[in-house]
Amino acid sequence: MLSDPLFILATVVCLIVLVILMVGIGVFTKGGETSRKYSNKMMRWRIIAQALAVLAIVLFAWAKSRGN
Questions:
Q1: Buried b / exposed e across 33-51, counting CB within 10 Å, b at 16+?
Q2: Does pLDDT of 1 surpass 80?
Q3: Long-range contacts for 6-10 (Cβ within 8 Å, ≥24 apart)?
Q4: pLDDT (tens digit, 9 = 90+) per residue, 2-55?
Q5: Rounded CA gap, 22 and 40, in Å?
Q6: Radius of gyration of the chain (CA)
Q7: What whole-number distance in Å separates Cα of residue 53 and Cα of residue 49?
Q8: Staple 13 to which of 26, 41, 42, 53, CB 3.0 to 4.6 Å?
Q9: CA-to-CA separations, 59 to 21, 43, 46, 65, in angstroms, rounded
Q10: Nearest Cα to 63, choosing from 10, 26, 27?
Q11: How far apart are CA 50 and CA 64, in angstroms?
Q12: Would you call 16 exposed, middle or buried from its count of C-beta atoms within 10 A (0-12, 13-18, 19+)?
């Protein structure tokens, strides 16, 4: 399972979501002009990354159910 490319892809994308979330929380807690400027951008990037993570997880589960 650890050598499965879809598993690796799903793991990497989930880690990217985590990093984006942590950076977004940091921007949000900083407040002020920085928060106003970057909060929405970070939220958009997080949503895109989460959609990719869900897609990768679903593809991995589908491939495993088919025996690949």
A1: eebeebeeebeebbeebbe
A2: no
A3: 6/56, 6/59, 6/60, 6/63, 7/60, 9/56, 9/60, 10/53, 10/56, 10/57, 10/59, 10/60
A4: 788 889 999 999 999 999 999 988 888 887 887 888 888 888 999 999 999 999
A5: 14
A6: 15
A7: 6
A8: 53
A9: 23, 24, 20, 10
A10: 10
A11: 21
A12: middle
Half-sphere exposure of 14 (CA within 13 A, CB side): 10
For the chain, how many residues are written?
Answer: 68
Residue corresponding to tokens 């490319």: 5
d(CA 65, CA 50): 22
**Residue type for position 2:** L
